[in-house]
Amino acid sequence: MTTSVDAEDRTVPCTPPRPARRRLPVALAALLALAGCGAPPELDAPTASVTTAPTASETPSATPPAPVTPTAPAPRPPTPDPAATPCRSGPSGDRVVALLRGPARVLPRDARVTVRTGPLCAEGWQYTVLAVRGHEELQVVTRGRPEELELVTAGTDVCGVEVRAAGPTGIRTLACDGTPGA
């Protein structure tokens, strides 16, 4: 071993650099050890001593399987018409006005009223628009049979909670979207 003197006059031992040949055998040994592992047993091909019995699905068939034909969905039951249409079996416009003048007490008896639209019916509900002299148009939503008519709401804006939540589509469209005659 040789020594050398550094800048501060100290003696520092010098070791010669190792030759690259010493590292090569160690690296080769590690590489060979890793390469010798081979493929995992799951990937090896089965040996001749292992046999499997054929299953029913593996046996060839004389005729190919029939193609699967998609079936059409079952027909839906008829649904009520979502649009409100003129009421065929009542109530009449006069019956709606009588309800508003009588038990509902919405209109005074002497108010001059003209039926502008309706009554239009959808699923047991009715929608009517009345022109009241000296006032804005009055929208009316009722339900029930003509002889047992029940007032749901009346006013200039009849798109209330009950109409939105329970009213049929045709009545909701008329009351909330303002499209009479739909």
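The record above closes out task 2.4. Task 2.5 opens with a second protein, given below.
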Amino acid sequence: MAAHRQLQRAALLDAARSLLTEGGGEALTFPALAARTGLARSSVYEYFRSRAAVIEALCEEDLPLWAAEIEAGMAACDTAEARVEAYVRGQLALAADPRHRAVVAISELELDDASRERIRAAHTGVVRLVLQALEELGHAQPKLAAALLQGVVEAAVRQQERMAAGACPATAGSECAESEVADAAVSLALRGLTAG
């Protein structure tokens, strides 16, 4: 019986990932989860009490995988600057990958404060990856710098999403490209606003 419940829960989470990938946060509803899995809507509530609970479960499973991919990319770098760049570019690449759309969609959803706090705690593991590199670069407040750097990454992810939706504004006569967003985010992270 326990194995059956685990399989059903996994099927619900897979369905949630698909819904988030295909339609963003608005697509994640209990009727849609029930339809995708063939369960009765009331059965979905036996596994998750709310949309927030589904999102929390996705975070528990997906954020460690996300962090492991970022960490592997950073580990291949020889310098602190290269590790910061790998941190930024790695997250942007993962955010653009449809398999990771669920993690990106989390920021779009309206969740209660307790859920947001649990997700923020899980997300802290990703941010921690860049702390040592920032310390090596001489940041006086590496925790603050890491939090701000993550803000840059999240803004770059949103810009990539606007571009993918065809809503990218023309910038200084040049075409918008994902590589430009990544380059700008890396430049901002490593050199600040005065970088050329």
